[in-house]
Amino acid sequence: MAVQLLQEVSTRLPLSTTHDKPLAKSACTVCGLGSRNLYGITPTRLRNFPSLTVSTSEYLPTRKCLPRDVIRADMGTEESRRIPRVLTVAGSDSGAGAGIQADMKACGALGVYCTTAITAVTAQNTVGVQGIHEVPADFVASQVKSVLLDIGADVVKTGMLPSVEIIRSLCDILRTYPVKGLVVDPVLISTSGDELAGPAILDALRDDLFPLADLVTPNLPEASAIIGGDPVTTVAEMREAAEAIHQLGPRYVLVKGGHLPGTNTLIDVLYDGVEWHELPGSRIETRNTHGTGCTLASSIAAELAKGQSMLPAVLASKRYLKDVLEENATLKIGEGKQGPVNHLFKLSDWEKSSTQSKFRPESLLLYAVTDSSMNKTWGRSTSEAVRAAIEGGATIVQIREKEADTGEFLQEAETSLKVARDYGIPLLINDRIDIAIACDADGVHLGQSDLPVARARAILGPGKIIGVSCKTPEQAEKAWKDGADYVGSGGVYPTNTKKDNKTIGIEGLREVCYGSPIPVVAIGGISGANAAEVMAYPRPENLKGVAVVSAFFNQPDVKKATAAVKSVVEECLKDVSVPNTSS
Ligand SMILES: Nc1ncnc2c1ncn2[C@@H]1O[C@H](COP(=O)(O)OP(=O)(O)O)[C@@H](O)[C@H]1O
Ligand SMILES: Cc1ncc(COP(=O)(O)O)c(N)n1
Ligand SMILES: [Mg+2]
């Protein structure tokens, strides 16, 4: 890639004798600017790139002079699969909203491989910066070389550069091993107001690093410091600052408006020496802005590494940052004034990815199992029946549909789920794992002849509830081993709801309970008339409730019928539930 870049430069730009002058005095023939803009070629680099026929005293122009499309990545020529690469040279933020951590996460979120060279280790949190431990310049250089000489980078992004030595040695390396893009975030002060790099580095940034940069991204205080202290507090002043910074050699300058006082619209100003772009965005009300600057710069680096040109890269990055800020506006991390940016919010839905099941055994207390033919007979939809059962006191609901086709079943499940969510009651789907996934139900209830529990668990993940019908302690133990959350055991009494269903009786139920390491709900012919017998004290500790079909849904008033069974079960719970483990 580097060879390609240099070849492209050498064919487009005349490496004429006018460059054959001492570095300190010569001016670039392309942009006409002074010595600080010269991009020196060292003898080492010449040895690496024999296709360039220039003498050691010749110089390439600065980044600013290059045609815009030189930076475009070429990802398609190599046989093996490639991933766009960004190397970030920056400080570590222990709070992980800014710095190296922000860069890695932002690049990762945008599909780019991010390598690192750490310039300083900071002790930082949402309150402020408690300490800075600088990494020696030669070791920063070692990290950069280790990356560039093996993995390579399409774009280098810099953040906190705490010393002149670090900046100078980085520039030396970048002159020797050019990359396609360089994004410089001139980090001086953290958003908490702590100094991360002193004014001593300003000259090195201006004279050495900026001329190599494709983009420099100061915030308002940084822009002001770079141009010598003049205030930058309005869009007009941002334009003036961008112009002055552009004179220092970078191809583009982005002055960021996050610190613009008192406006609802934040404007970032992008300037390439010819065109201005005022890029507006709404201010998002959130305390979580620690790391916005690092995030924006590394996102731009990532987009450039993918082959975007500058304006689309900046716009895409602003969009990403807006999504991050909006999605995490109310997130609470840390006790201080400024929360961190949460870059990987799309991956970090911890409730979904949690290894902890949402299942609460107490929810089995009054378990309503719908029956489509009964509801049809009584002229009500499944979701109406579900609402009535929940209002009568059902603590968990299962949709059991044996007649409808798949599309109808899904619709029924979706409307019922809305109702159940309104009341905060879990809703499971009988047998059909596909329906459960399609409507994002809380789980499934499986029979012995349905999809094996272990497979269901593998498909649904740890966050969903799985119940299994079991008639024996052996089945219950297997259900537990395979990852079920609870066992439904019965029929306790004879029932018409399920044909050819063997009745196991109260004795059979208790045997299952004693052999089951997981909670059990009793099912089969249970009503207000016999629920007390099922739940009678003393009872097994893991017998958590009763599941009811006909006594809820084959009734004129589902709510009233549910409430009637509920009062019986609750009465049983008043007995001291000392575990009874004897059989
Ligand atoms: N509250 C906010 N709502 C929306 N965008 C913001 C907010 N704060 C900062 N930004 C945006 O974040 C980016 C970084 O800006 P800024 O805060 O000025 O940088 P820094 O973090 O370096 O101080 C800019 O694009 C800016 O417009
Ligand atoms: C190590 C390190 N680097 C940079 C920043 C700037 O943070 P911000 O992006 O909020 O300006 C920081 N606070 N810490
Ligand atoms: Mg900043």
From TrEMBL:
Membrane-spanning intervals of the chain: none
Signal peptide coordinates: none
Entry-linked Pfam families: Phos_pyr_kin, TMP-TENI
Domain Thiamine phosphate synthase/TenI: 366-551
GO molecular function: ATP binding; hydroxymethylpyrimidine kinase activity; metal ion binding; phosphomethylpyrimidine kinase activity; thiamine-phosphate diphosphorylase activity
Catalytic reaction(s) noted: 2-[(2R,5Z)-2-carboxy-4-methylthiazol-5(2H)-ylidene]ethyl phosphate + 4-amino-2-methyl-5-(diphosphooxymethyl)pyrimidine + 2 H(+) = thiamine phosphate + CO2 + diphosphate; 4-amino-5-hydroxymethyl-2-methylpyrimidine + ATP = 4-amino-2-methyl-5-(phosphooxymethyl)pyrimidine + ADP + H(+); 2-(2-carboxy-4-methylthiazol-5-yl)ethyl phosphate + 4-amino-2-methyl-5-(diphosphooxymethyl)pyrimidine + 2 H(+) = thiamine phosphate + CO2 + diphosphate; 4-methyl-5-(2-phosphooxyethyl)-thiazole + 4-amino-2-methyl-5-(diphosphooxymethyl)pyrimidine + H(+) = thiamine phosphate + diphosphate
Coiled-coil ranges per UniProt: none
Residues annotated as domain Pyridoxamine kinase/Phosphomethylpyrimidine kinase: 93-341
Protein location: Plastid, Chloroplast
InterPro entries with a match to the protein in the record: Aldolase_TIM, HMP/HMP-P_kinase_dom, PM/HMP-P_kinase-1, Ribokinase-like, ThiamineP_synth_sf, ThiamineP_synth_TenI, TMP_synthase
GO terms for cellular component: chloroplast
Pathways per UniProt: Cofactor biosynthesis; thiamine diphosphate biosynthesis; 4-amino-2-methyl-5-diphosphomethylpyrimidine from 5-amino-1-(5-phospho-D-ribosyl)imidazole: step 2/3; Cofactor biosynthesis; thiamine diphosphate biosynthesis; thiamine phosphate from 4-amino-2-methyl-5-diphosphomethylpyrimidine and 4-methyl-5-(2-phosphoethyl)-thiazole: step 1/1
Cofactors that this protein relies on: Mg(2+)
Biological process terms in GO annotation: thiamine biosynthetic process; thiamine diphosphate biosynthetic process
Family in the record: Belongs to the thiamine-phosphate synthase family.
NCBIfam families noted in UniProt: HMP-P_kinase (TIGR00097), thiE (TIGR00693)
Purpose of the protein: Essential for thiamine biosynthesis. Bifunctional enzyme that catalyzes the phosphorylation of hydroxymethylpyrimidine phosphate (HMP-P) to HMP-PP and condenses 4-methyl-5-(beta-hydroxyethyl)thiazole monophosphate (THZ-P) and 2-methyl-4-amino-5-hydroxymethyl pyrimidine pyrophosphate (HMP-PP) to form thiamine monophosphate (TMP).
UniProt-recorded name of the protein: Uncharacterized protein
Source species: Physcomitrium patens (Spreading-leaved earth moss)
